[in-house]
Each structure stands twice: as C-alpha cells, then as structure tokens.
UniProtKB/TrEMBL annotation, chains A, B:
Function: Catalyzes the interconversion of 2-phosphoglycerate and 3-phosphoglycerate.
Gene name for this UniProt entry: pgm
Family per record: Belongs to the BPG-independent phosphoglycerate mutase family. A-PGAM subfamily.
GO function terms (MF aspect): metal ion binding; phosphoglycerate mutase activity
Annotated region described as Disordered, given as residue ranges: 160-184
Designated name of the protein: 2,3-bisphosphoglycerate-independent phosphoglycerate mutase
InterPro entries named in the record: Alkaline_phosphatase_core_sf, ApgAM_prokaryotes, Metalloenzyme, Pglycerate_mutase_ApgM, Pglycerate_mutase_ApgM_sf
Length: 409, 409
C-alpha cells in the first residue's frame, strides 16, 4: 500500500458574492474531485489550529507530522534547501533579493529590474567571497528563480535572531542588521551580514553581467539584500520517522525545501512554474512515474491556486482548480491511500492566507466512505472525518496503511 | 444521578465488502443500540488521538480521564492487579507464561501444553520462594487463566526497564534479561529475573502437579517466562478524583486490573469468559444489581467483539454484537447517564486494533438529543458531539451529572 498526500496550495477560499456566494472551489467544475469525495471519507482540516493563518511551510510541516512551533525557525532554511543547497543543522539561512543600489547604496530597484538571466554568474561571485575578520564562516550563496537567491552562513558561534537587511521599499539604503536578542551569536551574524551587504556592492558593481545590463539599459543586480534568517533545524528524516520511502513533487523552492530537509527524494518536473501557467500534464506524468516507482509515500504540491489567490484573480483561480481537476482522473488507483486537501485558504478577497479550515478527502480500500458527494469547503464539513488537524493526517494515513505501532495491549 | 460507561471492546470496524460495504456494527440488527442513539447525543471518539492505535488498557485509562502517556508503564501492573494482587506503586509487575523446558532449559512448549488445572499449586511454589542475595525483595506470584500468570517484585531499588525472558519461540532457552537503560535499578531487576527463571525450573521440575502431568503424557509447567515489565503507577483513585463511588464490571484481567488500580470495586461475574461464549445474561444481571446498589458510577467492559475481531471472525462479531444488543433493553433507565461506546476498532480484516475512531452515544435526561437514529461508526459522525477524544468523556459525563466545579466566575 502506498500513501499520497496531494496539496493544492491555497485552494480553499471564502464565499464570493459575484459567484452567488460560492467559493471558487464550489464554483469550479471538478468532477474528479467530486468522485474522490463520493468514494472517500471527508472532513475539514485546520492545518495547525482553528484560526491560525498557516504559511505553506508551517502547514506542510504540520501535515507531515512535524510540530512547526518547534521545527520552524524561518523561511530561509527551507528556501535554501529548496534550491538544492546541502544545508546542515546549525547553518543560518536567508532568503535574498538581487537588488539595484546607487553609489550611496540607496536601493533604486528591490528586484534588479526583475532580472532573469546571469544570476548564476553573479551568485558565484558572492559564493566565493570571504569576509575579513570572519574567515571561520563559510559563505554559501546560490541564485533561485528570477531576482531571488539564498544565503547560508556556516561556522561556529552564529545566531539566527537578527533583523532583515532588506528595507522592503525603494529610496532607502539597506537596513542595518541587528541582533534582536542581544546575544553574541546573533551579533556575529549581524556583523557578517552588514559587511556582506556592503561588500556585495563592491564585488558586483563592475561584474560583467552588470556592465552588460547597464549597457542594455537594465537595472544592474549589484547588491544583495538578505532577510528571513533561520537556523537550519535538526529534523528527523521522514523515512526514519515513518518507515516509508518518500518522494516530494513540488514546484516552489519552499516546499521542495521541506522535501529536502525531511530527507525525501525531491523530483524535478520540467515545465513546473509554480504559477497558473504551470505544465500540469508534466506534473501528472511525474506523479504517475513516482507511483510506479518504489516510493511508498508521495507528497505533492501544486501551487497555482495560491498564486491566483494572492493576485486576487478570481477567474484564474476557478480555472486553475478546474485544470487541476482534469489531471486527477488519471491518478486515482485502487492500491493507494490518496489524500486530497489544501495547505490553507488563500481567499481572492484577502489576497493572502487565512486561517479558515480546508476540505480534506481520503480515498482508499478501507476508509469509512461517507455521504459527501462534492469536494468543497462546506460539503466536506458534513463528512465522516468531522474536523481534524494537520497534525493528525499522517497518523490517520499510517493507521489506514496498517503501519502504526499499537500503544498498549 | 448515576453515570455508566459501557465499553464494547473492539466493536468498531471498517467497511467490509462481503457485507455490502457495511461494518459488522452496521450489519448487525441492534434495535436497542439504535434506540439509545435515537434518544441520545452521538459522535465519534478517538480514544487517544486520531490515528493512534490504542490498546484496551491505554484506551480505558484515557476514557477514565487518566493520561496513558504518563500512567501506562506496560501491561504487567494491570494484569497483576486484575488477578487480584494488591499491587502498590513502585512494585515491578510482569506477565508470565507457564512453559515447558527440557534439561538444557530449552523451551519445548511456551504454554506448557495449554495447562488448565493445577496452576494454583504450582504458583504457590513460586510465590513462596526467596532468591539468594535478594532477600530484600518479595516475590509475589499468582496464576491467571490457563497458562498465564503474573509476577510482582516488591522491594527497594528495583527498575522496570528490562527486556523479556520469554523467547517468544520454542526451541530456544529463555532470553537473558537485560537492563535496557543501564541503570543499577533495572540491573537488579534483571539479575533477579535471570535467577528466578533458572530457579523456577529447579522448584517446578519435580512438583507433584508436573509429575502427574508427565505421567499423563502432558507437557509439564516447569519454568516461568516473564515479560512486559512495568512499574506499578501511582494512580489517583477514581473516587478521589471524581467523588463518585465506582464499580467495574469487566471480564478480562487487563480491564479488571484497571478497575483495581483506580480503586473501583471490581465485581465478579459468574460465567464471564471474555469470549464470544460469555454469559451475557449473567453480565446483565450483575449490571442491574450494581445499578440498584449504592454505586454512582459503573465502568462496564464486554470483550467478545474484540476477540472475534482478533480472530477475523466476521460472522461471530456480527452475532456477538446482536447478542450484546439484546441485553441492553433491560438496562436502559431514566435516572442514569448511560454512555455506550467502544475502546478501539478491531477490524476483522486487520485482526488487530486500529486507530479508526469509534461511535459514542450518551443518553440521559438533559442531553441535547440529535437526529442520529442508528448506532454505528458512520451514523455517529453526523451527531451532536461531532468528534471528541476519550479524555473528554469523564468531563462531559460529570458535567451532565452536575458534578463539575466551575472554572472561573
């Protein structure tokens, strides 16, 4: 028996007047999801706790059975792992922007003209730097998509309780990074970052990629703005914890990072963009291949509905949900426990995550099929699971797979 | 007002194809249970947490409001209390088998030819022994049913973190007991056990009961194999905790032991076997008598459905549930809060406990009666209790009985 948790990121929503009071999921035509609901057991799920606005990262951790309040130190470690960096417990990781600064170090473009190419050469220039006085700390830097990058500091005596360098606005210089807890460890990290931001400008100002960009009238990527510090947590590997050989099929660095840090095989999918323009056929084929492979557990994340929610794009969200539905028909099999859910609501009205619960349906040979025949936020609430939490999902799945130890006699 | 919790052990199950997708409880004709559901408030209950595979012991503890994660040290203490031994906090208790060993101490029959008589004399021979070098430790030993027995060590400086002597297979000698935590306390217990196992052979080899068995061509019960060590927990008495004079009507030593350790009066029921062949009329009469008595709370456990589940006996499980139903009619009264539930699912397909939730119905004068009209795993999920945990049951019951303190003003 295999287990699959398929998470349609941000799919859940709130009732929308222009949809006659329906949610996008209720308005979308989703015959395959409805089929899963009909042949499964349904319920609503609070990814963390009722009313808690979960991030995708904290929600996924919770659904995988990890306590986000003890494991989650910030987004940095997961983003860093997501671009393939071999992060290690104790490393301090950051998300970064490539940005444009003028000679006074005032940020004129936080995204360096939304730079799309040449970032790997620029990143390499940062990756190989050392900072005077901090020779004991290794600086690991890699480009992510577009203007995004990750930074990892590896060395003794580093803390992660530091403020962001990113001023989050243009027309200002980078913010001075501070040790928020006053500890010498965080102060060391802050000192390194303040040096690194300044040094990055020195290194990148005349970098060939930037010279070329300036010649083309494009904003140069001549400064690095780190934010979202987090110490890489010491996470028990998924396979060690559950005894299941696991793979992760996800589009975004954040969720791929969760796959990496929990020790799953993270499968690359060509054409997966993380947006509504993603290649769902390609994702479908990757899932089918993984199901045919030796894996006993798959974590799947598809991100487009969340993007549409963040963009307030109602039509796009409905359409994307329908397109996701269309690939599900080929994925339903008898020999797997298949869980379909979302990691949080991303209402188009709010354009951000909310704490509303999400629908969940569990299909498989021995579930107590209930009377729910539609997959939606409200229909699911009448189902046989009633209301559960993200932290219950793995226990329920492992129990159905008969992979749980008995507690007692 | 009296409160009753009646637990039909292992009654809940999963849908079964040969029953048209029904569970045994759904397939069984249970007019009395359905009447309770109709006139009560219903829900599903996770004895411990969703997806956790509870034992009968850990589930009962949880339902009685004790945290099994802090109270439960192993099966030994409850089995020992269940045969009527006056166990005390700090005692180290074990389940044991009477087994057969040859002259090289190789186990030739782990159950001593499923010995049924004479065990009390054999047990007495062990019970009175002392071990050289461990004169400060009292050895308390009593037979249970069949080839089963219990051992209690009482004395200073004993630990319970030791391995089993029972090799769990024939053709091998008893396993050397080891201190699993390396502590001197557990080492002392291990040393005692290793001596006791060897000594038991010396004492029992020529015991008159065994001489007689050998003469009859039966395997002698000439060695003791302890397992399942646990320190007897210091459990607050049920009456001290809740102010209710309580009795326990249960068939198995394990649940009777929970009654003893929580300080309930444990009522003997003639003809109660713990199997599907049990005398349900006799159990019914014992319940009626206890209800007419001064008790304010009754814990009732009937075990046959669990046995049928473990045996994979679908027909037997359905039939037994119907027979249990037939005694319920005489037990429904207006002046009690009556809770009917199970301690866990024991699906006939799995032949062991699973973590699926169980149905629960609460009857009594002031419950918020819901629309559920059938007592079953799935019907209950639509009830007014929604999904609760075992640890909530006593609080809900006491509140309905108006026996709870107010928290706040």
């Amino acid at each position: 028996m295999k287990g699959v948790i398929m998470i349609i990121d941000g799919m859940a929503d709130r009732p929308i007047e222009s949809l006659g009071g329906k949610t996008p999921l209720e308005a979308a035509k989703t015959p395959n999801m409805d089929r899963l609901a009909s042949s499964g057991i349904n319920g609503i799920m609070d990814p963390i706790r009722p009313g808690v606005r979960a991030g995708s990262d904290t929600s996924h951790l919770s659904i995988l059975g990890y306590d986000p309040y003890s494991v989650y130190t910030g987004r940095g470690p997961f983003e860093a792992a997501g671009v393939g960096l071999d992060v290690r417990p104790g490393d301090i990781a950051f998300r970064c922007n490539f940005a444009t600064a003028d000679d006074d170090l005032v940020i004129t473009d936080r995204r360096a003209g939304r730079i799309r190419s040449g970032t790997s050469q620029i990143a390499e220039a940062i990756n190989s730097m050392t900072l005077d006085g901090f020779e004991d700390v290794e600086i690991i830097f890699r480009e992510s998509t577009g203007h995004r990058a990750v930074l990892v500091l590896r060395g003794p005596g580093l803390g992660d309780n530091v403020s962001d360098a990113d001023p989050k606005t243009e027309g200002k210089p980078p913010k001075k990074v501070k040790a928020l807890d006053g500890s010498p460890e965080s102060q060391k990290t802050a000192d390194i970052l303040n040096n690194l931001v300044r040094e990055s400008y020195e290194i990148l100002r005349d970098h060939p990629v930037n010279t070329e960009r300036i010649r083309n009238g494009e904003a140069p990527a001549n400064i690095i703005l780190p934010r979202g510090a987090g110490a890489v947590p010491d996470v028990e590997k998924f396979e060690d914890r559950y005894g299941l050989k696991a793979a992760c099929i996800a589009e975004t660095g954040l969720i791929r990072g969760i796959g990496h840090i929990t020790g799953m095989d993270v499968i690359d999918v060509e054409g997966a963009t993380g947006g509504t323009d993603t290649d769902l056929e390609s994702i479908k084929n990757a899932i089918k291949d993984a199901l045919d492979d030796e894996y006993e557990f798959l974590l799947i994340n598809i991100d487009g509905a969340d993007e549409a929610g963040h963009d307030g794009d109602l039509e796009g969200k409905v359409e994307f949900i329908e397109r996701v539905d269309s690939i599900l028909g080929d994925l339903i099999r008898d020999d797997i426990y298949f869980i379909l859910t979302a990691d949080h609501s991303t209402p188009v009205s709010v354009m951000d995550h909310t704490g509303d619960p999400v629908p969940i349906t569990i299909n498989g040979p021995e579930v107590r099929v209930d009377d729910v025949s539609v997959f939606s936020e409200r229909a699911a609430a009448a189902g046989g699971l009633c209301r559960i939490r993200g932290s219950h999902v793995m226990d329920i799945l492992l129990d159905l797979m008969n992979r749980k130890e008995k507690f007692g006699a």
